[in-house]
Amino acid sequence: MDASLFGLRFYDVYTFLGTLFLNALKMLIVPLIMSSIITGVAGIGDSGSMGRLGGKTLLYYLTTSLFAILVGLLLVNLIAPGIVDGEPARDIIPFEIDTADIAERIEGRGMDDVVNIFLRMVPTNVVSAAAQGQMLGLIFFSLLFGYFMTRIESSLSRTLQDFWQGILAVMMQITEWVMMFAPIGVFALVAKVVASTGFAAFGPLLAFFLTVLSALAVHFLVTLPLILALVARVNPVRHYYAMVPALLTAFSTASSSATLPVTMECVEVRAGVSNRTTSFVLPLGATVNMDGTALYECVAAIFIAQAFGLQLGFAEQFTVVLIALLTSIGVAGIPAASLVAITIILTAIGLPVEAVGLILAVDRILDMCRTSVNIFSDSCGAVVIGRLEGEQGILQEPTTRTVST
Description:
Structural class: mainly alpha
CATH class: Mainly Alpha
Number of strands: 4
Mean pLDDT: 77
Oligomer: single chain
Radius of gyration: 21 Å
Number of helices: 17
C-alpha cells in the first residue's frame, strides 16, 4: 500500500484515476437520463400508437420489468451476498466513507416514507432537484415532458424532438467515450481495494456475481418462457432457437441498440411475427424495455447496502423497485450505461455513489448477460403482442432459414 515511484504512492494514483472515472459517470447522469426518457416517451406518442397496440406493448414491458426486479430483489435478500459470515462486507472491503452518517440518514424510515416517495416525484424546482441528486422528480418530469411534447403544435413538437434527440445522440457518444477509459478506471478501483485488503475482497464480489447470474437465469429460463407459454400459447423452445443469432450478437456487443437489426430479423423471419408488430414493438423495446438492466440495478443497490451493514426497510426497498423500473426506461442501449442508473438509485436511498466502484470489476461480463436478457424480453414481447393481435403462424413450425449476424 505504501509502494511508490519517484515519491508518488501507487495507492494515490489508483485513488486519483478511480475518482476521476466515477466523476465522469456522475457527469453523465442528468443529461443522459433526461434525453433518453424524453425521446423514448415522445417516440411512443409521436407514432400515434398509444391505442390498442401501444397499450398492450407498454403493459407487457412494465409487467416483465417488474417481474425481473422482484426476482432480483427476492434472490439478493435470500442469498445476501453483501454479508460474509454474518458480518457486513465492509469489514473485508474498507470503505473510506462514514457509514454511521449513512445509517443515520436511513434509520427510522417506515411506511410513512412511501408517501414521501410520491411527494418527491413532483419537485418544486426541477433544476434544483437535478442539482441535488433528487432523480425521482427529474425522471417524473422527463416522463411528463416527453408525453406532452407530442401534444403541442406539430412544428414546435418536431423542433423539440430534434433538440432532445440531438442531446441523446451527443450523450451516447460521450458515454461511449467515457467507457473507453473504463478498463483504466476499473483497474484503478480494483487495485485500490487489493492494495488495502488483498484478494479477500473478491469473496463478496463473487457472491454478488453469482446472485445476479442466478436472477437473470430465473427470468430468462422461467419467467419469460412461462409468459410465452401461458399468454402467447407458443412453444418457448422454438423461440429460443429462433433468437440464437440475436442472443449471440447481444452477448458479444453488450448493446441492445447495436443488436436491434438482428433482433428484428430473427423475430420477423425466424419467429414469424408480422412486420407491423415487429417494427413497432422492437424499436420501442430497445429504448424502454430493459428487464436485465432493471434486475441488475436492484441487486446492485441492495448488495451495496448489505455491504455497508445497512438494513433497508420496506420504504427503501420500494424506492429501489420504483426507481429501477423508471430508470430502466431511460437507460441508453449501449455498454455499461446502467452504471449511470445505479448511481441514481444509490443517491435516492442515501448511499454514496462512490460505492458503485465495488461492482465495476465484474460489470462487463454481467453487462453482456443482462443485454441478452433485455433483447430476449423484447422478442418475447413481439411474439406476445403478435399473438394477442390475432396473428397466425408465429413459432408454429421450426424454421431452417439463417440470419446473418
